[in-house]
Amino acid sequence: MKDIHHTCRCTGQQFTFKEWCAWLDNHKKAGQDSGKFVALSYNGFDFNIHDVCLTPNRPVRLFNHHCIVEVKTAQSPTGRWDYGLDVNLHNSGHYVGAGFVDDVQKGYPTEAAAILAALLAARKSAQPTSPPVESRQRGRRRRIHQRQHAGPVYSEYHQANRRSAPCNGVQTTNPILIMTRHVESHMQPMCVGWFRLQYPAVGKLLFAVPNGGARSRTEAAIMKAEGVTAGVTDLILLLGRGGFNALCIEMKTTDRRSALSDAQIEWRSLTIANGNRHVVCRTLEEFQSEIRWYMARPANNEPRDEITCVRPIVPPSVEEIERAFGKIRRRKINHQPTKTEKQ
Hints:
Elements: E1 6-8, E2 13-15, H1 17-29, E3 38-42, E4 45-48, E5 57-63, E6 67-75, E7 81-89, E8 93-96, H2 111-126, H3 133-160, E9 166-167, E10 170-171, H4 175-179, H5 183-198, E11 206-208, H6 217-226, E12 235-237, E13 247-251, H7 262-273, E14 277-281, H8 284-296, H9 318-333, H10 339-342
Parallel strand pairs: 13-14
Antiparallel strand pairs: 1-2, 3-4, 5-6, 6-7, 7-8, 9-10, 11-12, 12-13
Helix pairs in contact: 5-8
């Protein structure tokens, strides 16, 4: 039995060390990069000899001043999905490509499941490790000493930047940590990202309404006075289609306990009564299905056929016609001439 040095799962090839070196030399002489050589293509996804997808989907990309996170997905001929992850923090980073899945028990059944796993992996990589108690105490004493000897300028700066100060090399306002606290927050960026990739011309017409979140009483009162309304949907597509003025999308989890509140039910009735469409989406697939159905409807300013645009006219029945002519006939018979007509 020969000693296997490299195995290509997408093609089933096995190489010994000599065979692998010879394969690399042949492609190098031909001016081909082994990492860019396409060994297998499936459904638009190209895999190289290292079982890494060269043309993955890029459904999610997050960035701010301190980090960049990009999720990549690819599907194998087995129907399973795998994710690739590119995480660049301000002090570290790593990259993993979307690989080939040759076992139906591995990978993920849907692209949404792969994206969710990638976001959880990104969150785990960005979470700080708890330092020893002695290190925390020394750091606390050092910060107290700096505040006491730096004067009011440092104190004002510290108060202004307290929430964004780095904690153990990781930004506390990192979107990776914030967006994965709730499952709804996992799904909503994926839905918005997918929509803006599929419909770039009207991508900005889909926007979020920041109604949720914990706020102080003062902040909540100010936002309520500014117009924040309880029950408003998470996403609104401000685009008229098929006679609807807009599409209101409420994001919920697959948990049975995740249901509409009383305020959301009241707001749903109000939006439907005023010519809008209201839907509840619990997965990325449901969101995509609703968006495709809605975007396939004709625009409100476009000419439409009689079936979809004009309310069908129901002709009067024979009884209604006879009843109407009978009234007219009786009126003519019972008509009394006026004085002008007698003269």
